[in-house]
Write a structure and sequence with these properties.
The protein is an all-alpha fold and 639 residues long. Among the domains are: 145 residues, Serine Threonine Protein Phosphatase 5, Tetratricopeptide repeat (Alpha Horseshoe); 34 residues, no CATH class. 72% of the residues lie in helices and 2% in strands. It contains 36 helices and 2 strands. Strands 1-2 form a two-stranded antiparallel ribbon. The protein is elongated and about 115 Å long. The protein starts with 7 loop residues before the first helix and ends with a helix. The N terminus is likely disordered.
Length: 639
């Protein structure tokens, strides 16, 4: 119905009731601007709104986030004397809240006479506090409602539960159980489940889920519990729940379910599972959603199948910047920086402009390549696009310059960053660490104003390792555990063993390894073995190598490390025996390689490469060397 096109003469003859019908029709169908325009026509016809008109108009203002129109309408309400009507005032509270004007919502609520405050008014004020993340104030308001004997419904608790801390959420769960709401109200049950899942308490969420009847269990219920299992890393149980859901009548997997399943595949890196999810996605018809293509590319890349990731990319006709970024990131994170850079150059030939995430990703590829020339080209592009002050880009520039050997340029970028966040500090500390500038790294760490996270501590320990700062390394490791409360990860333990091993503190290194959690021990013997080779501690090196081979007998690198240990001490027979063991198991050592950048192009050389061009060039050089030797010999004879 295009009421806005009716002649004004006909509209003038309409009653307030008809105007309200037109405004309601527009608002209910999402034509909020049309609702406000219709009200303007109503005023021009000589009529004004009533207590049914203004709630509809405030709903339109809230949906359009138009605080300007909302304030004008509020003045109309005051002028016409509808400010004491509960429906109007409740709509005002909701409008101000949704337009991020909590103080105005509070003012309207406080000015309402207690005799006209309904449960809906109280619930609206509760929602206003929750929307602004003032959960403690919302809980105080809930207590007032309880004391006043007002009816508490499922909608009363929905906003509070979603924003609760775990402790508050437990209290709210007990409250709604006593009121008998959770078993009869599916949205509330879903909200409580979501709260538990958010804090990793999937067991508690599952108890609620299992109490729900098949008739009340919605697709949101299934999505919540599946997503909860994915978030805690229990992907097997997430897929078990998904299979159970598929057997449920009337429940069809939606877009959110597939997002959770794809996230699970990314977590596990299981290619067979990923292909199965992709197949089900195609059958469901949910593959038309834009973000799904980005996730599919990330999923296949994480599963090591870049060909499938590229097929997904190539099949999308209208590629957005996020799709390009996902594919570039797939190549970068999988160790194919050259392919990432080639795709980035292809992107620049399109009408799509890279965003901050794209540039950060390609700078990471430059860092992996060690290509300072390419990195500088990207920096020039960044400056031309006016993105040089973006913190994400600046952080990536610091990382790139550090990895490409230009620590001075990294420091220059660091010094230009205003309002440095934790990532910026971390990147610079890491840069100093890999350059063996331990004292500079620790000095910067002490100047940092932010609370350090696990990544920062990894860089600090790495700096101590590369600079032989044993006492500092031990101090910061203990500080991380006991003062900051960060549980050491594999990276932290590896750095600690490396610190002790490089300094020759083998007894302490052994005690440290034996005191570590069992699950991280297989990985920390490698730095100890490397230290034994450096210090020619063959006996302990053999012990470390034996541990490595026992825990991971299928790693060719372990046999090579053992052979190198013997070689460093001139024990050629033992070295040959270690390599024979590797060959007997059918393991192949990954060939060594090197690369050089010439005129902006990277040239890679692999050990054992039988390239005809390489050997022709070597033959040519040998001929020139022989000619030079012959000429030198003849000149010597003449003398």
């Amino acid at each position: 119905m295009q009421h806005g096109h009716l002649p004004l003469a006909n509209l003038k003859r309409s009653s307030v009731y008809v105007w309200n019908l037109m405004i309601r029709n527009s608002a209910n169908n999402g034509f909020f601007t049309h609702s406000l325009n219709t009200y303007s026509l109503m005023l021009r016809s000589g009529l004004h709104g009533n207590n049914f008109t203004f709630p509809l108009l405030f709903k339109a203002c809230a949906s359009l986030n138009s605080i300007w129109d909302g304030k004008i309408l509020h003045s109309h309400v005051l002028h016409l004397g509808f400010q004491a009507h509960p429906f109007v005032q409740t709509a005002l509270i909701d409008m101000y809240s949704k337009c991020s004007r909590l103080s105005s919502s509070i003012k309207v609520f406080d000015e309402m006479h207690t005799s006209i405050r309904t449960s809906v008014s109280w619930n609206s004020m509760l929602s206003a506090y929750c929307r602004a993340s003032f959960i403690n104030q919302a809980i105080l308001l809930l207590k007032q409602m309880w004391i006043l004997g007002l009816e508490l419904t499922a909608s009363t608790f929905l906003g509070i539960v979603s924003g609760c801390t775990l402790k508050q959420g437990l209290s709210m769960h007990c409250f709604v159980l006593k009121l008998g709401l959770i078993n009869s109200e599916t949205p509330l049950a879903n909200s409580v489940m979501s709260m538990y899942a958010k804090y990793g308490c999937v067991k508690e969420a599952r108890l609620i889920f299992d109490e729900m009847d098949d008739d009340t269990c919605s697709i949101i219920s299934w999505t919540t519990i599946i997503g909860g299992y994915v978030n805690i890393g229990n992907v097997a149980e997430a897929f078990a729940m998904f299979n159970q859901m598929r057997r449920q009548r009337g429940v069809t997997p939606d877009f959110v379910v597939f997002v959770n399943l794809i996230s699970g595949c990314i977590h596990t890196g299981n290619l067979l599972l990923a292909a199965s999810v992709h197949s089900l996605l195609l059958k469901s018809g949910c593959n038309d959603e834009n973000p799904i293509d980005n996730l599919l590319i990330s999923m296949y890349a994480k599963c090591g199948d870049l060909e499938s990731a590229r097929r997904v990319f190539d099949m999308v006709h209208a590629k957005g910047v996020f799709l390009w970024t996902s594919m570039i990131a797939g190549y970068t994170q999988s160790g194919y920086p050259t392919e990432a850079f080639d795709l980035f150059k292809r992107l620049l030939r399109t009408s799509i402009r890279p965003n901050e995430a794209t540039l950060a990703t390609i700078l990471s590829a430059c860092a992996d390549l060690g290509s300072l020339g390419m990195g500088k080209e990207i920096e020039e592009y960044i400056l031309l696009q006016g993105l040089g002050c973006n913190r994400q880009v600046q952080t990536s520039l610091i990382h790139m310059f550090s990895k490409c050997g230009s620590i001075e340029r990294a420091k220059e970028v660091f010094d230009t960053v205003t309002n440095k966040d934790l990532a910026v500090w971390s990147a610079m500390i890491y840069g100093y660490a890999i350059h063996g500038m331990g004292h500079e790294a620790l000095s910067l760490f002490r100047k940092m104003q932010h609370v350090p996270d696990a990544v920062v501590y990894t860089s600090v320990l790495l700096a101590c390792s590369h600079s032989g700062l044993v006492e500092d390394g031990l101090m910061y490791f203990e500080s991380m555990k006991n003062e900051v409360g960060i549980e050491p990860s594999l990276e932290h333990y590896t750095c600690l063993v490396d610190i002790l091993g490089r300094a020759g503190c083998f007894d302490l290194a052994l005690r440290t390894i034996n005191g570590m959690p069992v699950q991280v021990q297989p990985k920390v013997w490698a730095p100890l073995l490397s230290a034994c080779r450096k210090h020619r501690n063959i006996e302990l090196g053999e012990f470390a190598a034996t541990k490595m081979l026992t825990l991971n007998p299928q790693s060719s690198g372990n046999y090579v490390s053992m052979a190198n240990l013997y070689t460093s001490d001139g024990k050629w027979k033992e070295a040959a025996k270690a390599r024979r063991l590797m060959n007997d198991k059918g393991l192949v050592k990954e060939p060594g390689w090197s690369q050089v950048e010439i005129d902006g192009s990277m040239h890679v050389f692999v050990a054992g490469d039988r390239s005809v061009d390489i050997y022709n060039k070597l033959d040519e050089l040998n001929v020139k060397l022989l000619d030079a030797e012959t000429l030198s010999f003849e000149n010597h004879l003449h003398l």
